[in-house]
From TrEMBL:
GO terms for molecular function: symporter activity. It comes from the Eukaryota. Belongs to the sodium:solute symporter (SSF) (TC 2.A.21) family. The lineage of its organism: Eukaryota, Metazoa, Chordata, Tunicata, Ascidiacea. Keywords: Cell membrane, Ion transport, Membrane, Sodium, Sodium transport, Transmembrane, Transmembrane helix, Transport. This is Sodium-coupled monocarboxylate transporter 1.
Amino acid sequence: VMAVTTMETFSIGDYVVFATMLAVSTIIGLYFAIRDRRKKNTEEYLLAGRSMNPIPVAFSLSVSFMSAVTVLGTPVEVYRFGTMYAWLILGMLIALIVTSEVYIPVFYNMGLTTVYEYLEKRFNRAVRLTATFLFMVQTILYGGVVIYAPSLALSSVTGFNLWASVVSTGAVCILYSCLGGLKGVIWTDALQAVVMLVGFISILIQGSIKLGGFSNAWNLSKMGGRIEFGNFDTDPRVRHSFWSMNVGSTITILGLYAVNQSQVQRYLSCRSTKDAKKAALLNWIGLLLLNGLAIMTGIVLYAYYKDCDPLTTGQVQNKDAQMQLLPAMVLEIFKDNPGMPGVFLSSVFSGSLSTVSTAITALASVTVHDFLKPIFPWSEKTYAYISMGLVIFYGLLLMLFAYLASKLGAILQAAISILGLLGGPLVGLFSIGILFPFVNSIGALCGVVVGIAMNVWVFVGSKSYPPPAKFANALPLSCAVSSNFVANSSQAMTTTAFGQLINTTTLSPVLAPTRPPVADLYAMSYQYYSAFGFCFVVVVGVIVSLATG
């Protein structure tokens, strides 16, 4: 039985490795600040002068998608629910092909600075500002959780000071994003992608050695029911099936890659449409590597704890217990290798840094171009300095929301889940603009409002009538599961690769006899939320536009 008896902590060597990663990130920002000091304009600062090579942009796209929450959460997803999650990688490829062929050419060829400019040109200013506002609220709330959740998980397991990690993450992000602008952020992301890959590979190698080889870990996971790729059930209530992971998740990923300012800003920084499309498709290779390694790490994680699950024994506990599983294993397997847990620590925080720096540069960009420039005729140099100030402001704001996340806990996580439901309706809004020439601004606004309302309705309904356990496919854990654990696990938060915290609410042991027929709709897999909202935006947008001329 492999169980942690005494909790390991980080050594001085681990802190040195972590500090080195933070220092190099800062130096990259400083380098671009000095090199481009004479080019003071928003085009250079917020769009890297539209001069970026597609390879670093592809790296940046990959890691801004893979947050620290995902680095810690994806292996646990496999640990609890098995490998059906791997089909997401195919969903990503479909979404990125659609992004590169349908959305990127439109946005790039219009010479946009923010993606929401398109909505004003296509519809009107009200539609543009609605979408911008939704993006800003979603990004600020999520950014706080991305800083706080991994810091809490690591501090609980390792004794690494919680607020030291929150402040160091936020401060370094603000520093290199402010100094280097988007160019600094993209090159730092490229470094962080390498750190994340090294982190996963080192865990896989060491974990496999401890278990007698990866093939042995695979066999142990197979015996535990974790290896599954053949669930083709078309029932939309099944949490993870081939269809939910491809049809459902494709719309969610389009929400992140096709119409989200954080990613579109990177396409617009490329030298041509061709380079932007190349960056989007090369990014899939990065996602394949990172997600593939995270899923393999999940297989090793299950095999390592197969005899006694730390969640059951209470060895890791509190509301983020699932996030602590991987750090607990890493400290154990590397206890005789000082410095190696520091590599893992660096890879987790690389996920945080890349996501947060992406968020604050995107927020600065939409504030300048969607709110300030249309009103105030200031010079480009003035706006460049304002952009730097906004990067600092939004960085501090995200740190404030990290503090609020610590106080609000489950309330904020529920807010993030609801905000995650905005992705599909926003894809629908841009899609009806691009694909239906007759759709007007009244139809567009009505569509997006109805789409979001329907998504929120289903999400709230799923809290009142939790889906039956049989659809969750939660796999058995090896220790005798205590009644206390079962009672609490319906409230467990699980993490999706979309960087949303979704309340799984999957273990309702008894079906209430009064369950209304609409409860079957509420039981829909969370993977379909985006597609559900998307369909309403398109249908309502088309009908209202035809009715109003």
